[in-house]
Amino acid sequence: MSRIKRVGCALVLIGIAAMMVRSQDTAGEYVSPSGAVPRGKAPKMQVQMLTTEEPTKQYAVIFYQGDEAFSGLLEFAEKYHVTSAHFTAIGALNGATLAWFDPQRKMYKKVPITGQHELIGMSGDIALYQGEPVVHAHAVLGGPDGTTHAGHVLEIYASPTVEVMVTVDPVTMRKRFDPATDLTLIDPTLQR
Amino acid sequence: MRWKQIEDTPKTFVLIFDTGDEIASLLKQFAAGQGLAGSRFKAIGALSYAQLGWFNWETKKYAPACVLDEQVELLSLIGDIALRDGEPQVHAHVVVGRSDGAAHGGQLLEARVRPACELILTESPIRLQKKYDPKAGIALIQV
Q1: Per-residue pLDDT averaged across A113-126, rounded?
Q2: CB distance A183 to A33 below 8 Å
Q3: Cβ of A168 under 8 Å from any chain B Cβ?
């Protein structure tokens, strides 16, 4: 009888330990939509303006080996005073963090990607929230056998290059906070 | 493949590919014919055959990722054109969808159209140049 109790007790302890480990893992796997984006992670980024006098400006924003392209795009937006833009990109990467929005938790579940992948396609936009640019991007990545992973972009480490073609509009597009999702959403009617 | 210029500023083309057309080679011919030097494009359509590549960082070569000898949706084709040694070089990536919705993707190596593919291309007045990058082992856009 006491042996059964001991075994039972041990099983409960193992169960609690497993739950603790799992809850720690889960806590690390989710990030807030309003998480801060670091700076200075794309030191090799180069920018070329592709238009001359047109009000709608086109830029090539090119990242090289080791540059983190998502935060780099935000730095580009800040430096060039972008108030409304959209972009597409292709390239290749070594390591990335994609994410999936969990509407129950109102948080992004991280999808870590390791190793060399094609950046098959990334598209996104840039709009202002409280006067500061916010980059929103989605990507499809391809592995060595052509299988794909896709999601909301948190980090993309260029290897050897990521080529982003950006169209910057001569207007201001603004975002507002949406309490239902905790996300900032583009609201074309927002004047300030 | 049929094409038409639909706008002057920015210079914009529509390219319509028909059954049997191979996108990669026709796009390269078009780029050379028009003297394209700083373009971006996107396309959707459907294919009867696709060969996708994956850049192998160790060998610095594009390895064939997969061959799909079947009818697939061309879900997305995104790319750019820049000059390498004076010649336009087309760089394009594709995502294709199989009959069960599963996606495959990679560098565009070969794509045979069935029944159609619609491509929009914008050419900028400024040229983009590629230079060989010894670390990467391939030519990269330098600005």
Answers
A1: 96
A2: yes
A3: no
- Two structure tokens written together for B56: 């192998």
Is residue B128 a contact partner of residue A60, using CB atoms and an 8 Å limit? yes
Pairing between β-strand B38-56 and β-strand B87-97 as defined by DSSP bridges: unpaired
Domain with A8 in it: 2-31
The pLDDT of residue A176: 95
Number of H helices, E strands in chain B: 1, 9
Q: Could you report the predicted ipTM of this complex, rounded to two decimals?
A: 0.82
Residue B46 has pLDDT above 90, yes or no: yes
- The full set of domains in chain B, from first to last, is 2-142 (3.30.1330.80)
Residues A95 and A12 in one domain: no
Contact B54 A146 (CB under 8 A): yes
Which of A116, A146, A160 faces B104 most closely, judged by CB atoms?
A: A146
Looking at the structure, tell me whether residues A11 and A88 fall in a common domain: no
The answer, yes or no, to whether residue A167 has pLDDT greater than 60, is yes
> What is the overall mean pLDDT for chain A?
90
What's the number of domains chain A is made of?
A: 2
Query: Which tens digit of pLDDT belongs to each residue from A137-153?
Result: 999 999 999 999 999 99
Same-domain pairing of A90 and A159: yes
